[in-house]
Amino acid sequence: MIGQSLWCGQALTRTIGRAVWRRGQREGRVARFAQIEPAPYTGSVCGLSVLGHLRHFVTMPEVNINHLDKQQVQLLAEMCILIDENDNKIGADTKKNCHLNENIEKGLLHRAFSVFLFNTENKLLLQQRSDAKITFPGCFTNTCCSHPLNNPGELEENEAIGVRRAAQRRLKAELGIPLEEVSPAEIDYITRIHYKAQSDSIWGENEIDYILFVRKNVTLNPDPNEIKSYCYVSKEELRELMRKAARGDVKLTPWFKIIVETFLFKWWDNLNHLSQFIDHEKIHRM
Ligand SMILES: [Mn+2]
User: Fold this and answer.
1) Count of structural domains within the chain
2) CATH of the domain at 207
3) Containing structural domain, residue 157
4) What is the pTM of this model?
5) Secondary structure (3-state) at 117
6) Is 145 among the catalytic positions?
């Protein structure tokens, strides 16, 4: 795949989950994922399952990360915001410590967000996480999922402005959306969801996730270290993707699956009337 600037898959219903992508498909048919050219990796990427044996003798958090993608390992040093079950800030810790199952089992919980970006045709931008990602590699998910960091700008809680600033930052970092194209004012905070899920024997998630909606046509320039492919989908195309996931043909992130199954379609049906769903009090426990 390296050396080809852009891949266009076949129609969504036939291509998702297949290792071979056919290029040269013409524009304008069924939604399709554009596959991103991987950057030359400076480190090696390997299946995390090989690290599984380490858990029997290492003392956390001394997990062996030598075999993981170097760019992704650097991000593990970022400081996430630790919170209690009611989303009150109680401290800060590294992204690494926040995502180790051993710490999650002890109750470590952090603040996160999930962006759902719709274009003016009301299609939802999905991404497939790169194989370099440490948690949930290769999984299909919503537009952008990440964390506000422990700095003054992203800690500010009034109207979730800190979380919305973080979303603007990550839309640029992952998808290459210019900062001026999606300002925090254009990001709508809907509600919060608390979920917990394991990625593998070492890594997992335990987050209170701010659900953020954006409605705008944007310029994309994705980072291949973050994103393997992306696509705008209609509701029916997302339903087809869900059926493929149910058959085991593709993998979804757990938070995306939960949100799609519980909330997404009723929100999507009411993109012009979202105020009825805005709830900044309740934290939905999934
Ligand atoms: Mn997280």
Assistant:
1) 1
2) 3.90.79.10
3) 70-285
4) 0.81
5) strand
6) yes
